[in-house]
Structures are given as C-alpha cells and as structure tokens.
C-alpha cells in the first residue's frame, strides 16, 4: 500500500472483487439523489473498449442529516446497480456501486464523493501494479461519445509524461429531456465558460484550461503525489485540476466528447445548475466579465517579461505603464513581495516565469476580474462579450452577423476550442491581434 493510501484514504478498500490484471482505466461517478443512474451506466456500456480493462465505480453518497428517504433510495440504487452489473456479459468492463452513507455534514458533497471513489480507484490500480493507470471523473447525469474510453486510454499512452487532462465537453442544445428554456439557458452559460477561458488565452495566460468535474482525468500516481481530491462541496474540480496544470505536462483531450446535463439545480452554491436555475427565474441574459478587464489583464501579461530583473529593475516604471485598475489590483495584492520571492528563487527567466505564474494563477485572475467588475467595469451580456472577443481572436475564422444569438456564438467558440490550444511561448512575448472588423 502506498503512503498516500495509508495516510490519506478515508476508508479501507470498499470493493472486494479482485481487479483484472489488465485494469488500466477507472471511471468514478459520484451520485446523490440520481434517478437516471442506470441510463448513465448503459451509455458508458455502449462505448468502445480500449486495450486495457475498465472499471466504473459509482459512489452513492449522503450526509448524516439527509432524510431517511434519501438514504434508503441510495441503498436501493446500490442494490439495483449490483444486480444490473451481475448480468453484464463482458468481463472487460465492470461496474461497481459503493454506498458512502452518513458522511459528516461539514464535508458531505461532490468533492468528498469524488475523493472516496478516486481513492478506491487507486486501491484497485495499485493492487494490480499499475500506478500509471488512469482515473476519469464523470457525472451520473452525463453522456459521452462512443470513443470516450478508447480516447482516454490512447491519450495517456501517447503522452506518457502527462499527469492529467481536461476532456472536451458540450452541453446539449436541444432535445426532449428538458423544456426549451433550459436549452436556451445552458447555451448562454456554456458560452460564458468558453468566453472566460478564451479571454484568458487571448490575454496570454499559459494555464487557461477548462476545469469541469465530469470532464477530467488523472494518472493514479500523479493523483496520489498531489494529495488526492479535495473535499469541497463545489469548485472541487477547479482547485483539483489547477494543481496539475501548474506542474506542466497537462493538455486537452479534444477527440472525444462528454455531454454534461443542462438541468437546473440547487445542490451547489455556484456552477451550471445554479446558473441555469437563475436564468429560468427571469433573467433574460447572462452577464459576464467586461472586455476592458480582459485588455487590462493582457496589458499586464504582455509586460510580464519586464518583471524579471534583467529587463526592468524598477517595479514603479512598469506599474506606471499599466491601466489604472490593474495598478490598483497589483498594489492591493502586494505584488512587489511576490515578484521579489520569484526573483530570489529563480536562477534564470524560465524559472522566474514558472514561479510568477504560481502566484499569478487562475485564482488570482478570477480575483482580478471580480475586482475590475466592482471597481470600474460592470458586467455585460455574454453575447456582446463573445462578439467582441471573436473580433479580436488571432485566427482568421469568419465572424457571425451582429444579430447572432448565444447558440450561434457558442458553436463558433466550440469550433475554436476543439481545434486545441497550446500555451504561448512566454519568453517570445505574449502579444495578440489588435482586432478584426
């Protein structure tokens, strides 16, 4: 047993069945009050199988304070999954369900459920001597392309040094499962997600990747080396993946697709479910970060090389050249202290820029956008922001008419994102297009 599993796993192994010696991929699914769980598993069962064997672990989870009816429903779901799984013909794809019952109210939630399942996946992979095996995170209301399992296996085989990856996703934009208003709402929310990410890329941030809990995967060994999954009730995916993004050897997997649910929800304080629910309650348009905040961020990242001692020894000269809102944010963030630490522990520019972006990371960028919103740049409709960014995007992709809707711009940004993106060569400069008409 590894040091991580000895010290950090909350439970001893929960699954008695001996894993296949060819086990190489484990899909972990947290489930809480899910009435379509078997539909999710049936969808995974239809996927093409990779060269390695695959396990799917469902973690039915409830809190100590949950009503007895919820806990009883989870016990029935566990039994239902086990009975269904026992009738499967193939031995190369196996399904298991564990019931993590009466979890402490302080921690019960999606982060803890993912941790329980991912720790169990580590037990399984380590037991067969495969610490390089892959653990994929999925959701009980998601669907996926038929090549989901094979693409995950091939991706990590093609990039043996990679620690983790973000898997391409698309919410459904039509169908019979939800009212039309739900699909209209999710189009705006996904457009916000893609605008926010691509705005960071346009500004020159090298660690801009989607962090969607149902669309990510990590190696067993890397998962343990970085301390496993956190126990956050929401945002667990953001904090988890950025540990690996900052390490390097992280990239997107774009030749498959996860289809997360667009359903409204009150289970978490932010995220997809809450955003859709808010739009359904009467908001006509989703608001997002102002383009001027993006330009201020870009102005700073364009000058990042000047923060190194060999370029500009005086921070005051650099600060004076930046937009006012960015200046105020940096002073409030005590940037001189962080620059001094990065310089003092770096032998060259490459080392400096790595340390710089450990401080000025995705969380700092989010804090800056919130600061800019309150200080000077109020949010604006996501369609207007997307139209602006598309007009400044370096690629020569035909622009849409001014009257284009959120769904149209979403498809535009999906096409851009699916082509893939590599972080810019920071030392060569972080400039971008001045804009397109």
Description of the molecule:
The protein has 437 residues and is an alpha/beta fold. The chain has two domains: 235 residues, Spore Coat Polysaccharide Biosynthesis Protein SpsA, Chain A (Alpha-Beta Complex), CATH 3.90.550.10; 130 residues, no CATH class. The chain has 17 helices and ten strands. The strands form two sheets. Strands 3-2-1-4-7-6-8-5 form an eight-stranded mixed β-sheet, sandwiched between helices. A two-stranded antiparallel ribbon has the order 9-10. The chain starts with a helix and ends in a 19-residue tail after the last helix.
Helix % is 40-55%
Q: Beta-strand percentage?
A: 5-15%
N-to-C SSE series? Answer: HEHEHEHEEHEHEHHEHEHHHHHHEHH
Helix segment count?
A: 17
CATH architecture of the largest domain: Alpha-Beta Complex
Radius of gyration: 23 Å
CATH topology of the largest domain: Spore Coat Polysaccharide Biosynthesis Protein SpsA, Chain A
Extract low-pLDDT stretches: 426-437
> By CATH's scheme, which homologous superfamily of the largest domain applies?
Spore Coat Polysaccharide Biosynthesis Protein SpsA, Chain A
Summarize the main sheet: 8 strands, mixed
Shape category? globular
Which class best fits the helix and strand makeup? alpha/beta
Distance between the termini: 60 Å
The tally of domains stands at 2
**Multimer state:** single chain
| Widest beta sheet: strand line-up | 3-2-1-4-7-6-8-5
The CATH class of the largest domain = Alpha Beta
Mean pLDDT score:
91
Q: Tally the beta strands.
A: 10
């Amino acid at each position: 047993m590894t040091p991580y599993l000895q010290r950090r796993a909350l439970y001893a192994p929960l699954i008695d069945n001996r894993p296949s010696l060819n086990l190489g991929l484990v899909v972990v699914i947290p489930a809480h009050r899910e009435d379509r769980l078997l539909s999710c598993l049936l969808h995974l069962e239809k996927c093409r199988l990779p060269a390695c064997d695959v396990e799917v672990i469902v973690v039915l989870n409830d809190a100590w304070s949950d009503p007895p009816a919820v806990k009883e429903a989870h016990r029935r779901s566990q039994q239902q999954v086990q009975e269904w799984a026992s009738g499967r013909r193939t031995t190369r794809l196996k399904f298991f369900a564990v019931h993590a019952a009466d979890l402490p109210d302080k921690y019960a939630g999606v982060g803890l459920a993912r941790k329980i399942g991912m720790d169990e996946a580590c037990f399984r992979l380590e037991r067969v001597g495969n610490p390089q095996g892959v653990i994929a995170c999925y959701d009980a209301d998601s669907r996926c392309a038929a090549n989901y399992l094979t693409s995950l296996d091939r991706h990590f085989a093609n990039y043996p040094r990679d620690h983790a990856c973000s898997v391409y996703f698309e919410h459904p934009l039509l169908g019979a499962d939800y009212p039309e208003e739900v699909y209209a709402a999710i189009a705006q929310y996904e457009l916000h997600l893609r605008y926010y990410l691509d705005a960071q890329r346009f500004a020159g941030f090298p660690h801009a990747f989607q962090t969607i809990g149902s669309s990510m995967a990590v190696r067993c060994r890397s998962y343990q080396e970085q301390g496993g999954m956190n126990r956050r009730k929401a945002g667990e995916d953001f904090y988890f993946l950025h540990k690996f993004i900052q390490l390097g050897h992280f990239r997107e997997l774009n030749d498959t697709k996860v289809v997360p649910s667009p359903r409204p929800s009150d289970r978490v304080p932010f995220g997809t479910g809450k955003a859709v629910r808010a739009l359904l309650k009467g908001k006509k348009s989703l608001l997002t970060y102002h383009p001027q905040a993006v330009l201020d961020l870009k102005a700073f990242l364009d000058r990042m090389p000047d923060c190194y001692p060999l370029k500009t020894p005086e921070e005051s000269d650099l600060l004076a050249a930046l937009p006012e809102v960015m200046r105020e944010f940096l002073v409030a963030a005590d940037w001189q202290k962080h620059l001094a630490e990065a310089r003092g522990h770096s032998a060259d520019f490459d080392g400096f820029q790595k340390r710089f972006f450990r401080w000025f990371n995705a969380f700092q960028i989010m804090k800056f956008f919130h600061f800019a919103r309150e200080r000077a740049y109020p949010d604006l409709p996501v369609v207007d922001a997307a139209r602006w960014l598309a007009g400044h995007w370096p690629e020569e992709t035909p622009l849409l008419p001014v009257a284009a809707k959120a769904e149209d711009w979403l498809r535009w940004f999906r096409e851009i994102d699916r082509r893939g993106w590599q972080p810019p060569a920071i030392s060569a400069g972080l400039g971008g297009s001045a804009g397109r008409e």
